[in-house]
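Q: Is it fine to ask for two folds in a single conversation?
A: Yes, each is treated on its own. Send the first.
Q: Here.
A: Result:
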Amino acid sequence: NLKNKQNGVEVMKKFRLSALVIMFCLSCILFTACSGKSSDTGKSSSVSSGQKEKYIEKAQNVITLFNEEKSDEIVELCDEAMKNALPKDKLSEVYTQLKSNGDFEKFLEGEMTKVEQGGKTFTVVVQQAKYEKNTLTYTVNFDSEDKLAGIFYK
């Protein structure tokens, strides 16, 4: 019985390590895509202050919809890939995670850039949000048709 418990602990340690490695790799990919540096796979372009304000406001609206658990409105904003990535049960998990940070208080700094990746142009907004217990940094991506193409928070 003790040996079974030890094996279970080892499996959980390996699972956690694998999950951390995957999260790190995804973070690196996202950081590279959002860094605004020119490279072989992607490049950024400058934007006007009017565009910056527009997209920061759009990103804040998306974050607000997540905070208010408005699944139907979120899905309406998504591109096809995001619609498939965010089924109702996944959205419920996200809402639970967000609630663990306490009540939303206010938006802090926000930045925006345009990134070309794989022949497509994305608008990337990095927006900080203050919650009762934590400050989260969201990365919100919009495609060329202004559809929500990705959201990540940490």
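Q: Second one now.
A: Result:
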Amino acid sequence: KTSTPSMFRVEEYRNFFSELVPGLMKKGDVDIIYLPFKEKPAAFLLAFTYNGSFMLYMITNDSGISKYSPGRVILKLSIDSELSRRYGVYDFMRGAHGYKMRYANHLTRSYRIIVHRNILLFMLDSAMGFFEFRIKQDERLLNFFLRFEKWLRVF
């Protein structure tokens, strides 16, 4: 079990992915890989694919079998498979998660550039960035920020 609850507990995230993924799958721009264990899925990996890169978005696994590290297993298998089969780059994308450093052999800088038409949206976005870790740990706080952002977009 992780210290952060699943983002799929939040309805907005579920809706976002329910709308996004099928269209990307039709275009071939998303990969969903699963790892079987005793005839059941032990882990899933979601990645975006573009221009010769395999961009890891998320890994999720069955917490009941976490002692077998299914997340690590699916990650290692996908790195070996995707680099040898189709892609020249396996991109872990943004974030400072420790597992990324165990596998990476090259680091690049990412910049986030946002232009807001509304000063309140800018302030909300800045607050969310500053409190990002805390927001991800607290489902109520995340829901509050998402509802507040939706309300602000009306104005």
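Q: Anything structural to flag on that second result?
A: Two points. The CA atoms of residues 135 and 144 lie 9 Å apart. The radius of gyration is 17 Å.
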